[in-house]
Amino acid sequence: MKPAILVTRAVFPEILQLLAQHFEVESNQDDVIFSPQELAAKLQGKQGVFTTASARFNSDLLRQLPELKMIAQMAVGYDNIDVAACSAHAVMASNTPDVLNETTADFGWALLMATARRITESEHWLRAGHWHKWSYNGFLGADIHGSTLGVIGMGRIGQAIARRSMGFNMRVIYHNRSRLNAEQEAYANNASYVSKEDLLRSADHVVLVLPYSTASHHTIGAAELAAMKPTATLVNLARGGIVDDAALIAALRAKTIAAAGLDVFENEPKFHPDFLGLNNVVLTPHIASASEATRRAMAGCAAANLIAALSGQRPPNLLNQDVWKSKG
Ligand code: DGY
Fold first, then answer.
1. Of the residues 224, 239, 266, 295, which is catalytic?
2. All domains in the chain, ordered by first residue
3. Which of 53, 115, 205, 211 has the fewest CB atoms within 10 Å, i.e. the most exposed one?
4. Across the strands, what pairs with 151?
5. Residues 255-276: pLDDT tens digits?
6. What is the C-alpha separation between 191 and 209, in angstroms, rounded?
7. Rounded to 10 degrees, what is the CA torsion of 73, 75, 80, 84?
């Protein structure tokens, strides 16, 4: 008999076809968002789950699922999965690193440029019929070329963003849990490692690409925003909760910083309604990895992890190696 799995959200049909070759699949092409109770009920008797970051996997849930062996997440970020609890319950977990690095870095630049050069704000103004004459000071923004880019969280996506800055003749500074090696710094446009304080003080454009955890909660709050240049832009591509959204709204209103570009929000898909009343913020619905090819690659990667795990092979992107070791 094939192992039983749940696919928690709608996914590409060919991925369901692939999964169906290996598993008894319960899918969710209606894309209902399951409550924790519904998720627990749906997962009864399942050995595997193909999920996105919108479902939460913690001890409470795992203790109700003695048959579950593998959580395959279709995302690089996995703050929705308590990996230590997975290990405690001998459940493997995986994510989808690397396949989205370049697409996410492209989007980081799209958001940075739209923010610094006021693209969405000016487009809304044009569409609203306000454009009657050119003016010398219409929608003045901040230059990208020749400026200083500050990257907080210099993992693979951060490095891909930094590398793209070569074409704009920028200086790159970064802050990270640990310093990169010389080769990685060279790849990232000769990025210089600095303290968070120095980065906030010196960068013209600050891009956040660090993973969310309790340690990175509100990495950017009122004090950090106050330390930035009044002409600076802030871009959050990482996760909601890394920025204190209420403090950011206050800073954007007071023009403590010039503008922000946000692809992620605290409590998304809900977000602070006051963002909607601000012109100096560009808002996108968590789409940094959303190119056709990359979302298909992410789904394929999650499926490959699930197929490997439930056929006795080590999943290529296993997050908790301890569970694998304890099997052997
Ligand atoms: C990721 O891969 O982490 C993206 O943010 C989608 O959740």
1. 239
2. 4-97+292-327 (3.40.50.720), 101-283 (3.40.50.720)
3. 211
4. 174, 207
5. 999 999 999 999 999 999 999 9
6. 15
7. 60
